Every structure is written in C-alpha cells, then in structure tokens.
Amino acid sequence: MADTSNDPSTVRFIIADDPPARLDKALARDVPEQAALSRSRIAKLLAEGAVRVDGVVATDAKAAIATGAEVEISVPEAAESHIGAQEIPLNVVWEDHDLIVIDKPAGMVVHPAPGSPDGTLVNALIHHCGDDLSGVGGAKRPGIVHRIDKDTSGLLVVAKTDRAHQGLAIQFEKHSAERHYLALCHGVPDPNDPRLRGVKGASFETGSVLKIQTMLGRHRTDRQRQAVSFEQGRHAVTRVKVIEAFAGAALVECRLETGRTHQIRVHMSHAGHALIGDPVYGGRRKLSEKAHGAAAVALAGRFGRQALHAASLGFAHPVTGERLRFESPLPADMAELLSALRG
What we know:
Blueprint: E1 2-3, E2 10-14, H1 23-30, H2 39-47, E3 51-53, E4 56-57, E5 70-74, E6 79-80, E7 92-95, E8 99-104, H3 121-129, E9 139-140, E10 143-144, E11 153-159, H4 162-173, E12 178-186, H5 194-197, E13 202-205, E14 209-218, E15 226-229, E16 234-246, E17 249-256, H6 263-270, H7 289-292, H8 294-301, E18 308-316, E19 323-327, H9 332-342
Parallel strand pairs: 6-9, 11-18
Antiparallel strand pairs: 1-2, 2-5, 3-4, 3-5, 7-8, 8-11, 10-11, 12-17, 12-18, 13-14, 14-15, 14-16, 16-17, 18-19
C-alpha cells in the first residue's frame, strides 16, 4: 500500500508482513516501485533524517521495524550535477524517457577522472539530455552501469532515471545483458594449437570457442594495468570465436560473461593473441610483411588504439520489459585494417 498522490516529493507506504530484520532492507523491499529508490539511496536518506516511521525520524539502518508500520520518506529535489555540461556531438542509437544508447567513438572517455576532467561522454550527456535527467542517486546526472575503455569504440547504454539505473544495474550484475565485441588480434586462436593447451585458464568449448577463465586484479607494479591471477582478484570469463582467419591474425568475436576492467585485452594477451594496436597489453608483436604485404603491416603498425569494438548490445528495457538489441558496424579504422588483412 502506498500513497504518493498528495506530494510527489514524499513517499508513503505500509510495511508488509514478515519484514526483514533490518530497517533499510525492509524499506528497500516495500518502497513503491514507482518511487525508484535503490537501497543505497534509501541508506543515504536514512542518514539525512528524511525517513519517518510511525511519525518518528529513523536514522538507524539496522533498527527493527514491525509489520503495519507507516513509513514516510521525504525525497529532496534532484540536485544539479557538479559535472559540467558540454556540447559534444553524440551518435545516438536509441533514446526514450528512461535511457539512451550511444555508439561511442574511440578516443572518448566515459566518465570524468583526474586525467580526463572534461570532454567525456558524461559531460556530453548532461548537455544532450538536459532536464530529461530526473535524478540518479539524488543528482541530475546520467547513470553509468557499464563502461568501455577510452580507445574502444562501440555501444553503451546509460540510464536517465533512477528506476532505469536500478534495472540496468541488476542486469549487468547478473550478466543477463548481452555484449559482443569484435576484435582484430595477433595469431589465430586454434583448438589444434598445442601452445594454447598449455595456457592456464584457457580451454576450448563446442564450436571451437576459446574460453578464458582467470582472476583479474591490479598489476603489482603498474596500477594503471590489470593482470591475470589464479590466487586473488575478481573472477573473469571471456569466450572467443574466430570469425575470419588470416596468416598470423584473425577477426574474432569476444563475449563477456563478466565485465572486468580491460578484461578482453588482458585475456587475449594472456592467451598469446594480443589485440592489434594495443599499447598496453600488445607487447612488440608485428604482422608478417611476407604474409600480408608492406601496406597492411604499415597500417597495423600505426594503428592508434586497440582494435576492439563493442559491436552488439542487448538487454531488457528496465521499465517496459521490452527486449532491446542494437548492433554497430565496424568503425572506419578497423574496417580499413580488416580490408588490408584480407587483401
């Protein structure tokens, strides 16, 4: 039971039977869906004294609450984001009230960071969406639920509302969102290659699909890099299928079961098939001039980024439930390199 009709900034509801032992969990369970308040948002509102239980301000997230208790949550108007709006061109693939899908070019950072304070996708979205941003986590900002590296191109979905942000975040957390990448790599991942059979964490599944399963964590000496581990870090699984093979190179499709930082790049390097152009994990590998010709080798040698593209993205719309799927063709630089390899 909920009443939000009198004041859109106040959420009122009754605690249902058998509430969880903690107040914050009970509130997260019973808060009306249309209020779009995540558990983390509720915790923040509790700390701010914005929650009343039976008319008394409640701030202890661990407190007990009884069935039938009357809850009132005062939700402040979304604050303006501290991130500045910038008019930067965007390739919008889909947009509605709740979310936006962008085909990001290589070279664009997703979120401001110390090394990239502006000129990011978030700066561009704040300008593009304007007042359509209803407030994610209490601020008028886009909800980033997944990222792709600065020099990786391709598809990215971003939430415009708190409700969409919660729904998308759950799908990415449970790995139910579909993400396929296209990459150009050194060598051909071949199940008949005896070297690959000796790579720890690498195995082949039906259909000659290479499965790479390791832990990933920060590199011991270079904090900007990720490294494979089998003792500590976060579980990571990548599946790789050869789409087209060349002499000493391949076009592959990479499917993420998990979504860790630099996952595809680190896993492909671990398997001995680093991505062409990867300045961090690619080592000093070069294509064979004898196999590909001087022009193709020169083009690969000056390729200015890792040859990786987020080519398809699928998920359930977090509000309507409609299944959405998007595809992005190879960008011009990768298409040119692929053509040179074929030639």
